[in-house]
Amino acid sequence: MKEKKMDLRTRQTYSFLTTALFELLKTQSFSEISVTDICQKAMVHRTTFYKHFEDKEHLLRTIIIELQKKFDEQCNEHLSSSDAPKTFYLLLFKRVLEYIAENKLLMSKTIFDKGNNYVEEVFKSSITEYLKNHFKLNEKKNNVKFKISPALLAEYYTSASIAMANWWLENDMSVSIDDMVKNLDLITSGDILENI
After folding, report:
1. Once rounded to an integer, what is the mean pLDDT over residues 14-20?
2. Which of 1, 54, 83, 163 registers the highest number of CB atoms within 10 A of its CB?
3. pLDDT value of position 192
4. Averaged over 8-30, what is the pLDDT?
5. What CATH fold (topology level) applies to the domain 1-53?
């Protein structure tokens, strides 16, 4: 019984700290925010903060891991392993843009913040893994072989997606998601499969 209370308290502490960080990100960059700022905004003692986290980066990593889990769940709901590689890629890109729009503040202040490589790497690795696994599965299911290594192809497509998403965010999402997907389709069009 006592353990459940601790779990609830821990969840509440995480929630308070997460909310405080998001509030601070509205007016400051992540690098400008201190642990003291977060604790004051959350009305949580610094000792409590350090009981759960090593530093503000650890808090951010925890938040990002939770967001990554939600992103993975949403991708699993919206994407099908039976989609052709190009269709799958474009649907994944659309899902990425929708996710960025849903989490605009965090994305703009952390993932696409030039000084925060960890967060961008977590985001990129999720997309790369989805693509690589789908490409490999597609080779097996459809008896085709990519002209390029699925791992290299996934890296290329991920980099293109991240670059376009970054541009989209920097330009205040002024282009619709559907138009961004069409643009990516035009940029990446090409013959990537051969029959075996």
Report:
1. 91
2. 83
3. 46
4. 87
5. Arc Repressor Mutant, subunit A (1.10.10)
User: What class has domain 62-195?
Assistant: mainly alpha
Report d(CA 123, CA 65) in Å as an integer. 9
Instruction: Give the mean model confidence (pLDDT) for residues 86-102.
Output: 86
Q: How far apart are CA 78 and CA 158, in angstroms?
A: 18
Q: Are 19 and 39 contacting, i.e. CB atoms less than 8 angstroms apart?
A: no
DSSP labels, the chain = -HHHHHHHHHHHHHHHHHHHHHHHHTTS-GGG--HHHHHHHHT--HHHHHHH-SSHHHHHHHHHHHHHHHHHHHHHHH--TTS-HHHHHHHHHHHHHHHHHHTHHHIIIIIT-TT-HHHHHHHHHHHHHHHHHHHHHHHHHHTEEESS-HHHHHHHHHHHHHHHHHHHHHTTT-S-HHHHHHHHHHHH-S--EEE-
In one-letter notation, the amino acid at residue 153 is L
CB atoms near residue 156 (< 10 Å): 14
Domain ranges of the chain: 1-53, 62-195
| Phi, psi torsion values for 44, nearest 5 degrees | -125, 135
**Strand-pair category, 193-195 with 144-146:** antiparallel
Query: What pLDDT does 193 receive?
Result: 47
